[in-house]
Amino acid sequence: MLIYNSMRRLIFPLILFLLITFAPVEKAFSYWIWTPSTGKWVNPKYAPKSTPKEQLEYSLSFYKEKKYSDAERELKSLLKYYPKAAEAAEAQYYLGIVYEAEDKDYEAYQAYQKVVDKYPFSERIQEINEREFKIAEKFMSGEKRKFAGMPLPVDNPSIEIFSKIVSNSQYGPLAPVAQYKLGLVLMGLARYSEADEAFEKVISNYPTSEWAEAAKYQLAATQAKQSQGPEYDQVSMQEAKNKFEQFVKEHPDASLSKEAEKNISELKNKEAEANYNIAVFYEKQKAYAAAKDYCQLVVDNYSETPWAKQAEAKIKEIDVRLEGNKKIDKKVLKEIKKEKNLSARQDKLTVKQSKLEEKKRLKAEKTTQKLAEKQAKKDARAQKAAEKLAKKEQDKQAKIEKIRSAKETKAKQKEAKTLATLDKKTLKQAKIDAAKQTKQAKIEATRQAKQAKAEAAKQKKAAKLEEKKIAREEKIRKAKEARERKLREAAEKKQKKIEAKRAKEEAQRLEKERRLLEKAAVK
User: Fold this and answer.
1) Helix (H, G, I), strand (E, B), or coil: what is residue 286?
2) Which H/E stretch holds residue 34?
3) I need a surface site. Which of 96, 178, 318, 522 has the fewest CB within 10 A?
4) What are the Cα distances from residue 151, in Å, to 114, 191, 435?
5) Helices (DSSP H) in 251-329: which residue ranges?
6) CB-neighbour burial class of residue 217 (10 A; exposed 0-12, middle 13-18, buried 19+)
């Protein structure tokens, strides 16, 4: 009985296994095919082509039709099934192209960068650097920054992309400008120390580049940015001013030198303001001597700034305070205050005057430009008129030549007629010869037409034969594939029958053994 129970426990799972294994699967797997070569079920709809070249061409056919999601799927399929093929690098590159077409700029950058990382010997590296550079410029100019529909968790992706462009090709044509623009992005995010480092790299790594000069200017500008604020960092201002002065000294003819000189003037004005504010602070603390020293510093070192006059007025005010021993002459103070206000008004007028002069200069430049444009248009009109006149003269000469030629032709015809009248026989012969030539020409034309028609018919027949041949070959190929598929299905069906038969025989054998065991147990 114990043996019987054991056998029953073994037989039941075996029968269940056989039922599950050999149950009809046609409905469940109607879209899948078993491939003995791979030992897997494959859906033909998503199966890759037989070669990576065919798969790439198939993928690009979707791209050309602007079916980007299908193109993306097929390119990824190529990368999955043929990762080491020569076409894999091209597929990865076109995946980036597809992402760009779908306005997925960050995904496009990542796809391009994989080409550089995985396939460094690809011929597309320079083109990829150019495409990555354009994407970085988009992000730099404030394009929407999203990845998979979500905002990117970074300040600006252009920082990452410009850095990668430099590392991809450190001495390539885009490396200096990428390094420079990286500094501009960092500067725009107020990450001044990192911006300084980026500009320093432009100067040290690409000293002969056109961007090295601009990087020197931006270094000074970065230092000036760091000096801005209500308190004014005097050390940073001094450093910035020194860098601007050095830039002007080294590049006096550069287009940025005028801007640098303007920045120097602004920094001097800020320094003067800072020193004047210090003097005011000491004055409030009743440290008149220190206040006077700082005012004198403004007068001596920043005489071209508006703060110099205010400092002079402040010195007079402090002198009155010192002389009067805290008993201020109200009348003198009033005069000083009046002088101070007058100086401030004068400064405002000076600034206003300079602005008016600048406005006048710009207006004059604009007027000059307009006059130049007007003159250019006038010259263009004159040129056009001259060309028109020349053409008219040329047409007139051509007309005269035509009339002369017609007269000559008429004279020749008249002479020929006279000669023909004098020699009718010659004329008759000429007519006969002309008729023969005309007839011969017609015969030749007819022959050539027949020959061309025969040749066209021959080519058409050959084309039809070729089409029939291709159709026949295609029919044979399809028949062959159908036959192979039937043979494969028959083999698989036969194999299933054999396995089912074996399972059935095995089950019968086990049943027989069970009965024998039961008989033995009964005995």
Assistant:
1) coil
2) strand 33-35
3) 522
4) 22, 21, 89
5) 257-284, 288-301, 307-324
6) buried
Closest by CA position to 310, among listed 344, 354, 262: 344
**Polymer length in residues for the chain:** 523
Find where tokens 């007819």 sit.
Answer: 446
Q: How far apart are CA 518 and CA 523, in angstroms?
A: 9
How far apart CA 169 and CA 30 sit, in angstroms, is 52
Gap between the Cα atoms of 318 and 191, Å rounded: 43
The letter for the amino acid at 403 is I
| Residue 201 token pair | 């790299």
Overall pTM > 0.70 = no
- Residue in 296, 262, 256 with CA at minimum distance from that of residue 276: 296
**With contact defined as beta carbons under 8 Å apart, do 184 and 197 qualify?**
no
Q: How far apart are CA 349 and CA 355, in angstroms?
A: 10
CA neighbor of 322 nearest in space, from 277, 291, 297, 296: 291
Closest to 205 in 3D by CA, of 234, 182, 237: 182
Q: Which residue type occupies 432?
A: I
Residue bearing tokens 């207006």: 363
Tokens 């007839």 belong to residue:
439
Residue-wise DSSP of 165-217? HHHHSTTSTTHHHHHHHHHHHHHHTT-HHHHHHHHHHHHHH-TTSHHHHHHHH
Nearest to 214 by CA among 351, 50, 206: 206
Q: What is the pLDDT of residues 76-103, one digit of tens each?
A: 999 999 988 889 999 999 999 999 999 9
Which pLDDT tens digit goes with each residue over 306-315?
Answer: 777 777 887 7
